[in-house]
Amino acid sequence: MAKPSGSTSIAVREAEHESFYRRLFDRSGFGFAALDGEGRIVDANAVLLRALGVASFSALTTFKAAVSPKDRAILPLAMRAPMAEQSPWEIRLQRADGAEFWVLASFIAPPVNPGEDAPPALIVQIVDIDERKRNALELAERESRWNHALESAGQGVWDHDFARGDLFYSRQWRTIRGLQPDDPIEGNLDAWIDSVHPDDRPHVLAQIARQESGEAPFNVFSYREKHKDGRWIWIESRGAVVEYDDDGKPSRIAGTDTDITERKEAEERLAQMSRRLELALDVSRIGVFEVNLRTGEVRWDDRMIEMYGLTEAPDGTTWERAVHPGDKRKATAKVRDGIFHSRDFSNEFRIIRGDGEIRHIRGRAAPYLDGTGVPRLIGANWDVTDDVLLQEELKHAKELAEAHNDELEAARARIEYTALHDHLTGLPNRRYLDAAIEEAAEAARRSGSRLAVLHIDLDRFKEINDTLGHLAGDEMLIHAAKVLGELKGDGDFVARIGGDEFVFLSSASSGRNLAVLAEAIVEAMRKPVTFNGHICRFGASVGIASQSGAAVDAKQLLVNADLALYRAKNRGRSRHEFFTSDFQAQIIVKKQTADDILSGIEQRRFLPWYQPQFSARTLDMTGVETLARWDHPTRGILTPDTFLKIAEDLDCVAMIDRIVLERSLADFAEWQSMGLGIGKISANVSSKRLHDPELARSLQMLDIPPKSLSFELLESIFLDDCDRTVLENLAEMRRLGIDIEIDDFGTGHASIISLMKLRPRRLKIDRQLVKPVARSPGQRKLVGTIIEIGRSLNIEVVAEGVETAAHVAVMRDLGCDILQGYALARPMPASALPAFVERQEWRANAGSARDLQNEIRRAVTRQSISGR
């Protein structure tokens, strides 16, 4: 409710027969009411009664009752004697049916005229302003909604009223440019144009001139303007002439500005991708086509037209006419079938080019519906004539080879014999042994008989080889093979498995006493051998292992025999040893370790240690890598190399990983509450774990803040051939806000395509590549290339194994993002990390800039000298 300007005055006249206010009531077109001292209505004219929807003023009580409850609070102020004769009030009255309407109410204290009865205490005059008032309120509401809409859309409003010299800029207009509400705005065009990008100024001035001259009543243009923070932002300006002066020139122009920086950047990225795709297609000579399946309209790119040798624009029949008659039926059937079933399809056919040349073509196409619902077919063709001709040549060569089948069969037999036998001694080799022992083990399991393995190693063979030469050594190996061959009985098998090592298989069918057999071998090998007049003496150590019946395990037998041989050589050589309970004790120790691991899982004795990671540019801590440790009750803190292999055999690595991850997440939450500034934690994920269908579900059960955790995948995991489970797990990780990192990059075989497919957040350069960078220009170049690959794919690069201050300097200069290694910090428990962060020791450890430069200079100088 507002109190408008202006005043109301009523001329008071005296009358002989009728009271003043009564004459006023009857003759006025306005509504009037007379009020007594209590505010009761004691009289009212017909205009007021009609407005209130009543027949007689007797139906009315107090004037306050006729006023809307929304405005009653203002009545005491409006009706107060000093206020009554002032400006009228805008209030709402309420009809008998409850409807409300706006009026302009004036409160007048009537004069006392001689000869008349006492006048009422107050006279109220009302003027109906309902329609005008509601229109004004609606206009204000519309203006408010429009302003909110512009603000929500991010559009800043400007209004240049040249006639009044008034320049208006909305809050959003200022926000787009980083200006505060009270920041001054330069209204002079010559001064303002300096904030526009130099390349855009002529264009902007031309557009403003067109608008201010009236040439363009409505204008849209875009340009770059300097933000308050110094960066350039793209603005799309829309303006319209809203008023003209007497000469027909624009006197007022208004419009909106929109920040389109993100759209412009997206357009530039799309343009770059289009250029790269076009270049890739051009280099690979792949032609692309598209067909409107509803109208038959076709679009071929230049490579398609060149491939088909066309001299005129293609139409809906061009392809079918170009296909070789011998291939047309099959090729067109594939196209129809693919379109009918709405699925991708490949095709292979010959074409007759426009110049008559026959070429072999392969293609792949896919039907789809465009945004308007029109069915289309898009695809690519490429020329494989050279490949086809090569295949035909290979086929011809194969036919020639098959014509000489007998020769090939003989060659195959020779190759197979060579593949299964040692070329020097003629004995079976390791490959042949593997097959033979598996066959013998299966026979022993079926019959319940014994199978024994004697692992034989020649003693002092190396001395003969080194002093008398390899020819002498070869003669000793041939002699040893001959000795073993003479001792071999029915059912026995002898093989040379490499160097000076042999294996003797003895089955129960031979009925051999293993100790006697082993001693015979040792005695025979002790006998001297003459070579070129030299007496050569060597011996043999033998390790023996045997198993019987269903317990026979070929691989374990070989392992046990090898352990027994190791003991024989340690006990003086030229002797034999059986695999005994001592070895069993070792197995017991392994089992005890396994039991301790399981107990450690139950007692949650596996815990994370952390190695900090640092920004290469600022040396600020960016995060930590989680490293598993075992708090053994008697052996203290153990690293994974002491328990991981056994844990893998127990298939409980996933449980250990979960315990460590849960504790590291709890530590991370505590660090956040302490404000340590540690941005993230990372943890390794094995290939087996990545293939676990339950991985996604187990991660969902953890409270993982988005972007706080990253998983490191070893590069040795073959990322180019991920199965469905791996892809689903990776997708769930991303959905949970978990970043992906590639660990030990440079040691495996991850391709650029696999990196683009996986889209990791970071890749870690393996320490073996980082270690030589301070002294090897070639190694620096290699590491720099990896960093450039990461940067081009928008992947952060982490260097691990940063062991010296020189490493810190070199990796920083190469553009590496994050550093990790002993030069900055060693792994530590969670309890030590807050104090480490507080002391900032790593900054001193990294060394000064001059120290780093000198160290690098010395390394380069040393390398130059050594290369001379």
Task: Itemize the secondary structure elements and their pairings.
Blueprint: H1 20-27, E1 31-35, E2 41-44, H2 46-52, H3 63-66, H4 75-78, H5 81-84, E3 89-94, E4 100-108, E5 122-128, H6 130-152, E6 155-161, E7 166-169, H7 171-176, H8 189-192, H9 201-212, E8 218-226, E9 232-244, E10 250-259, H10 261-284, E11 287-292, E12 298-300, H11 302-308, H12 318-322, H13 325-341, E13 345-352, E14 358-369, E15 375-383, H14 385-403, H15 405-420, H16 430-447, E16 450-459, H17 461-468, H18 470-487, E17 493-498, E18 501-507, H19 514-526, E19 529-531, E20 534-536, E21 539-548, H20 554-570, E22 576-578, H21 581-602, E23 606-615, E24 621-632, E25 636-638, H22 644-650, H23 653-674, E26 681-685, H24 687-690, H25 695-700, E27 709-714, H26 724-735, E28 739-745, H27 752-758, E29 762-765, H28 767-770, H29 777-792, E30 796-800, H30 805-813, E31 818-820, E32 828-829, H31 833-839, H32 841-845, H33 849-866
Helix pairs in contact: 17-18, 18-19, 30-33
